[in-house]
Amino acid sequence: DQQVKQNSPSLSVQEGRISILNCDYTNSMFDYFLWYKKYPAEGPTFLISISSIKDKNEDGRFTVFLNKSAKHLSLHIVPSQPGDSAVYFCAASELFTGGGNKLTFGTGTQLKVEL
Amino acid sequence: IAGITQAPTSQILAAGRRMTLRCTQDMRHNAMYWYRQDLGLGLRLIHYSNTAGTTGKGEVPDGYSVSRANTDDFPLTLASAVPSQTSVYFCASSETGATGGYTFGSGTRLTVV
After folding, report:
1. Chain A residues within 8 A of B47 when measuring between CB atoms
2. If I label A14, which of A110, A111, B40, B98 is the partner at 20 to 30 A Cα–Cα?
3. Residue A44 and residue B43: Cβ atoms within 8 Å?
4. What does residue B69 show for φ and ψ, rounded to 5 degrees?
5. Nearest CA in chain A to B107
């Protein structure tokens, strides 16, 4: 049972336009949500996060929105740049019993920003 | 450069053979993790360790074992490899309880034939 879902395997946008990547989750115990970016042959890198008590977090061109009632979050990239072309993973955090936190990842969305 | 080092970068392995994937971090993070990435399935947690001397099972632990003898090293062992273990394996680390996310290594691409 997939607790974190990214229903769009791919997304193509033009340079300068807005990219919107979506993510849905089912577990109400998740307390933090994160977005990771992954280039080919590299490990995922942390991009931006949001606490479950917030509804928006902004960092430069990247903004994450959280709608808890809908169990939905989205990542907005504006303006999109060719260097943003990568796979984007949504992840949700919950505490392990006994300490530490566990990240559950979605299946990823391949973003392609075209010139 | 601080971070996570994984070795080997890639490996082709005969089915039935034993293999250990190595992972070393120099950030003194308490927690470490092993994930596998498969097309259409995203990243799935294999095993984790919240601190040296302790380990736990993730979503897909069968066929894998780990150990955490010290803070820096977290090797993943496939006792008898099978083709379904063909995947890209990522090691990661974080501060215990940190919500700022994990630091990932560059991955090991393993092909079991």
Report:
1. none
2. B40
3. yes
4. -75, -25
5. A43
Residue A96, pLDDT above cutoff 80: no
Per the structure block, which two tokens stand in for A56?
């928006």
Q: What is the rounded CA–CA span in Å between residue B54 and residue B67?
A: 8
Cβ neighbours of A36 in B, within 8 Å: 101
Cα–Cα separations (whole angstroms), residue A62 to A50, A56, A113, B79: 12, 11, 15, 43
Torsions phi, psi of B27, nearest 5?
A: -100, 0
**Chain centroid to CA A37:** 8
User: From CA A111, how far away is CA A36, in angstroms rounded?
Assistant: 12
Residue B2 pLDDT exceeds 80 = no
Amino acid letter at A87? Answer: V
- Does B8 lie at the interface with A, CB-CB under 8 angstroms? no
Are A106 and B96 a contacting pair at CB < 8 A?
Answer: no
Token pair 């490990």 in the structure block, residue: A43
pLDDT digits (tens, 9 = 90+) for A39-75: 999 999 999 999 999 999 999 999 999 999 999 999 9
Residues 6+ apart with CB under 8 A from B51: A99, A100, B30, B31, B68, B71, B96
Report d(CA B12, CA B14) in Å as an integer: 7
